[in-house]
Amino acid sequence: MPSILIQQRGSTMNLEEIKNAWEILDKRLAEQNRLALQTLTDNRIDRAKSALWPLVFALWAQMLFGVALAILFVTFWLRHLDTFHLAIAGILVHAYALMMIIDAGSQLALIRLIDHGKPVLEIQTTLAKLRDWRARKAPWLYGITGCLIWIPFLLVVFAALGADLWVKAPTVVNWLLLSAAISLAGFCLLQWLILRKPRSWLARSFDESNTSKSLIKAWKFLEELEQFQKEEETDGK
Amino acid sequence: MFKAEDHAEFLGLIGSHQGIILKIAHSYQDNAADREDLAQEILAQLWSSFPRYQRDRPFSTWMYRVALNVAISRLRQTKPRPISLDSALGESIAAPTGKDPDPRVSKLVCFIQALDPLNRALLVLYLEDRPYREIAEILGITETNAATKVGRLKQRIREELPTCPPS
User: Fold this and answer.
1) Of A95, A162, B19, B65, which has the highest C-beta tally within 10 A?
2) pLDDT digits (tens, 9 = 90+) for A224-234
C-alpha cells in the first residue's frame, strides 16, 4: 500500500484509493457507454470532423488560387518579353503565385506526414511548429511581399486592359511606389512593436487574425512542450 | 478504401479496447457533448491511421498514442462548440456528467481536469497501470524520465487533490 495519504475533508485517500476511484469510473463508463462500432464506414470517416480539416481546405484553396494566378501571369509575361517593365512585372506576380503554391504545398505535405500513431511529444511539437509558422513567420513573408506585389499586379492588370501605366501615367506609378514604401514602413513598425512586446493586446490581435483557427491555441502549447522537454533534460541529468 | 478483413480486424481490436477511448474522452473534456465529439474524432482518427499500425507492436500502445494526440490537439483548439449528437456513439456517452455520486471519483475527475494536457496524459497512463517503458514509448520520453515525472505527479496529487471540490 503506498504510503502517501491525502486529506479529503476529514477522510483520507491514498494512491490505491485513487486508482480504485479510476476503476469505478472505468466500470461506470463501460456500463453506460457503447461505441457504435458497426456504423464505422469509409463514408463516416470522410464525414468525421478532423481538427486540421479547415486548415487543409484553406491550403488547397490557396494552392488552387496560386495555380490559377501562375497560369494567368506566365502567359502574360511570355507575351510581353519585348517590353521590359511589363515582363518584369509579370514575372514578379508569377513568382508571388509560385510562392503561394509552394507555401501551401509544403504545409499540406507536413500535415500529410503527421501520423497520430507516433509519440505524443513528437506529434504535438510538429503541430505546434506548423502553427508557429502560420502565426509568426508567414505574416512576415506575406506582409512584406503583400506591401509590394500589388504594384506589379496593377501594372499587369492595366496592361491586360490595354493601358500601360508605366508609360502613360508615370506619376501614378510614382504615387504607387510611395504608397508601397509607406505600407512597408507601417508593416515593419507594426512587427517591431509586436516583437518588442509579444504579449501585448496588439500582438495577440495580430496573431489571432493571422492564424488558422484550427491551430489557434497551439502557440501556448509549444511553450508547455518546451517546458515539458526542459524538465526531461533536467530529469535526465 | 479499406478491405473487409481490415474493417473486421479493426472492429475486433477496438471492441476489446474501447475503454481507452471512453476514459481519454472523459479525461480531456468535461462537457458531455464535447466528450462525445472527441470520442468520435478519436475513433475516426484510429480508423484512418489503422493502415499505418505495425502489427508487431502492441495495439494498446498505438491506440493510446493516437487517442492522446487527438485529445490533446482538440484541447488546444478554440472554445468548445455545440455539436449535433448524431447517432454513432449513442446518447449514453454523454453520461456520466462531471458531478459523480461518488465523491472520490468526483475529486479525481476534478484533479485530472485541472492538469495541463501532457501531465493529464501521464496521469491517465499511470492510473491505467501502464509500465514506465510503455508510458515512455507513448509520450516519446525516456523510461527514466517517465518514472521521474510519475513520481512528481504523485507529489502533486498529494498536494493538490485536497483542494479539489468533491462535486
Assistant:
1) B65
2) 777 776 665 55
pLDDT of residue A17: 77
Q: Are A147 and A187 a contacting pair, CB within 8 Å?
A: yes
Contact B117 A224 (CB under 8 A): yes
Of A34, A51, A116, the CB nearest to B90: A34
Tell me the ipTM for this assembly. 0.73
Q: Which of B114, B5, B167, B133 is nearest to B58 (CA)?
A: B133
Cis status, amide bond into B96, omega within 30 of 0 = yes
Nearest beta carbon to residue A115 from set B49, B90, B141 = B49
| Mean pLDDT, all residues of chain B | 79
Whether B106 and B57 map to the same domain: the answer is no
Ranges of each domain in chain A: 5-33, 52-230
Residue with cell 475513433: B43
* B44 interaction partners in chain A (CB closer than 8 Å): 44-45, 48-50
Residues B87, B124: one domain? no
Question: pLDDT for A1-24, tens place per residue?
Answer: 444 444 444 445 677 778 888 888
B49 and B120 assigned to the same domain: no
**Domain span at B136:** 96-167
Q: How far apart are CA A24 and CA A73, in angstroms?
A: 66
Residue B61 shares a structural domain with residue B6:
yes
Chain B nearest C-alpha distance from A12 (Å): 9
* For B95, nearest residue in chain A (alpha carbons): A32
Which of A228, A227, A226, A193 has the alpha carbon at shortest distance from A207? A193
Domain boundary among B94, B112, B128: B94
Q: How many domains does chain B have?
A: 2
Together in a domain, B1 and B73:
yes
